[in-house]
Amino acid sequence: MAKRSTLLIASLLALALPFAVPAAAGELVTQAEKAEKALAAGKAPEAVDALEAALDAVWKATPLTFRKALFVAEPPTGFGAYVPRGTSVFGPGEALRVYAEPIGFAWKAEGGIWACDLIIDMALRDHTGAVVFEKRDMGRMNLKSHARNHEFMMKLDLNLRGLPVGSYTLDGIMRDEVSQKWGKFSLPFEVKG
Fold first, then answer.
1. What does the pLDDT look like over 123-146, one tens digit per residue?
2. Does the pLDDT at position 18 exceed 70?
3. At what angle do helices 22-40 and 44-61 cross, to 10 degrees?
4. Cα-Cα end-to-end distance for the chain
5. pTM above 0.85, yes or no
6. Is the sign of the CA dihedral 9, 12, 16, 20 positive or negative?
7. What does residue 25 show for φ and ψ, rounded to 5 degrees?
8. For residue 25, what pLDDT is reported?
9. Tens digit of pLDDT for each residue in 19-45?
10. Which of 7, 20, 48, 154 has its CA 20 to 30 A from that of 92?
11. Backbone φ and ψ of 141, nearest 5°
């Protein structure tokens, strides 16, 4: 029964994580088996550690990207703690609030602590795709932790004051100073008067 359960977990991981590189796939199966054995032995913390090791393998193989990026109605208060905005239509001068969850960024060890270093650039394009506003180094997110955290969020507040009525796209470009990876999200929106 435990072997069938282990195979089921490994199969589910393989189906749920198609972007994992083949080298990581073997590690996923190994960690799933460790988790299954630990759980069967009543060692839940060890089971969680094994699944986190599997997640770390997938994380390293993942390009820097965003699991979520959306406009929110009010400033988010933490990871997953946001209120989605019901529309992507804004009034002139109204604030744009963005909640985003980057994944695939890298950690480096610094004296027993893990550190990440992410920089965000922004670009605003009009309906033709022309860039009407651009700002590099708009924000920097440094995190130091005893764990390689995966639940990480960023928030952005932008003022639309002076932006004419029309259709636009907001591009957020994130650069990872540790891995040199980069990724972006794009959020279309409208300004109506």
1. 999 999 999 999 999 989 888 999
2. no
3. 170
4. 64
5. no
6. positive
7. -60, -45
8. 66
9. 444 555 688 889 889 999 999 999 999
10. 154
11. -120, 110
Residue 15 pLDDT > 90: no
Mean pLDDT, rounded, of the chain: 87
Share above pLDDT 70 across residues of the chain, in percent, rounded to a whole number = 87
Structure-token pair, residue 177: 């100073």
For residue 165, how far is the Cα from the chain centroid? 31
Query: Which residue matches tokens 């195979």?
Result: 7
Question: Nearest CA to 125 among 186, 187, 169?
Answer: 169
Spell out the SS3 assignment of the chain.
CHHHHHHHHHHHHHHHCCCCCHHHHHHHHHHHHHHHHHHHCCCHHHHHHHHHHHHHHHHHHCCCEEEEEEEECCCCCECCECCECCCCEECCCCEEEEEEEEECCCCEEECCEEEEEEEEEEEEEECCCCEEEEEEEEEEEEEEECCCCCCCCEEEEEECCCCCCEEEEEEEEEEECCCCCEEEEEEEEEECC
CA 110 to chain centroid: 23
